[in-house]
Design a protein that fits this description.
single chain, 350 residues, mainly alpha, three-stranded mixed β-sheet, 12 helices, globular
């Protein structure tokens, strides 16, 4: 996840509310930095659990593998560790209109625009969520266990990483490190989808799974993609229901959403899970509480992965070749006229 950090020199260009937000997040980031200790020190600390030390060593291995893989000079990222007071490092609040499945963007100088606000203090996230709810918006709050400051600060290993198993941790680290080598301003969705895809595919190569294990993972990924596609299609269906009526009230929008979830979303998801023999909590869409904001968040992190995979297959690229191809296309895109379509549209229309 790419977390918003902007320089304090930009304060004169933003509103008082944003100044307050930036200051609070800046202070939170500095506290993380100040509490960080060199990995060598943490590894020698008898009060740190051996399981945690093992995860620190794994992060170091994943980091070296990533930069060697892409033949990029290794940075000082993850050279220190921060032990958090909470299980999550921060909290995201996604905001959407009651009749529109689109995240409300917040824009900042230098950093650009983001479809969420992140808070180091859970209380501040809840306060902001309540404020937006009272203003007539729909909201979704979720914990964050990793993020990238995009070079504004030296990112540290966070104790929230330690809750993940080795494979998931590898995907997480590869995901976050990808943000350090490639980032498109004002396009969080494509950034996150690329990082998700690269992180997962690199983990397959890192662990050198045998054909049986690879087939099992590919089958699970195939099932996941089918669920993902259905959710995206159903989101389009829901937006169509909103669009059929003009000037919807919050109450009317809520009725449309509730009816859609009950009569269309849950039955179709359940049928697909049954067909794919996905049982219990593994059929995750049935376990999740959905509204316009959570649907918007899902689209931000999931919608374009299959298109990226299709692009890769179209050219027969390996992961490294895919990265260099997209990077070259972005450089080409930046030289186009100012009045142009988004980079996502440009890339996937090839």
């Amino acid at each position: 996840m790419v977390f918003l950090i902007v320089l304090f020199l930009c304060l004169q260009f933003v509103s008082c509310a944003k100044i307050s937000y930036i200051v609070e997040q800046g202070v939170g980031q500095l506290k993380l930095q100040n509490r960080a200790r060199e990995n060598s020190v943490v590894l020698k600390d008898p009060l740190v659990a051996s399981k945690s030390k093992k995860k620190i060593k794994l992060v170091q291995e994943y980091k070296s593998y990533f930069y060697d893989y892409f033949e990029v000079k290794e940075t000082s990222i993850y050279s220190k560790t921060t032990i958090l007071e909470d299980s999550a490092v921060s909290y995201l609040v996604i905001v959407s209109k009651h009749d529109k499945i689109k995240a409300r963007e917040e824009c900042f100088p230098i950093a650009g625009c983001f479809p969420y606000l992140g808070f180091f203090k859970k209380a501040s996230a809840i306060e902001y969520q309540k404020k937006m709810n009272k203003s007539g918006f729909v909201t979704y709050l979720r914990p964050v266990y990793a993020y990238s400051t995009l070079g504004y600060f030296e990112d540290t290993i966070l104790s929230s990483f330690f809750y993940f198993n080795e494979k998931v941790l590898a995907e997480l680290i590869f995901h976050e490190l990808f943000h350090t080598v490639f980032f498109i301003k004002d396009n969080v969705s494509l950034n996150e989808n690329m990082a998700n895809y690269i992180g997962r595919e690199m983990s397959y190569e890192y662990f050198k799974f045998d054909q049986k294990k690879r087939s099992e993972l590919e089958e699970k990924e195939h099932q996941r993609n089918q669920l993902k596609k259905l959710i995206v299609d159903l989101v389009t269906e829901l937006q169509g229901l909103y669009d059929k009526q003009k000037n919807l009230t919050m109450s009317q929008s809520t009725q449309i959403l509730d009816s859609f979830l009950e009569s269309s979303f849950r039955p179709k998801i359940k049928k697909l899970c049954d067909d794919l023999k996905i049982v219990g909590k593994k059929c995750y869409p049935l376990e999740k509480k959905w509204n316009n904001a959570s649907f918007s968040a899902y689209l931000t992190y999931e919608e374009k992965e299959q298109v990226i995979h299709k692009l890769r297959n179209q050219y027969g690229f390996g992961i490294k070749e895919l990265f260099h191809f997209i990077k070259a296309k972005y450089a080409e895109y930046q030289n186009l006229d100012s009045d142009k379509k988004s980079f996502s549209d440009y890339l996937f229309s090839l």
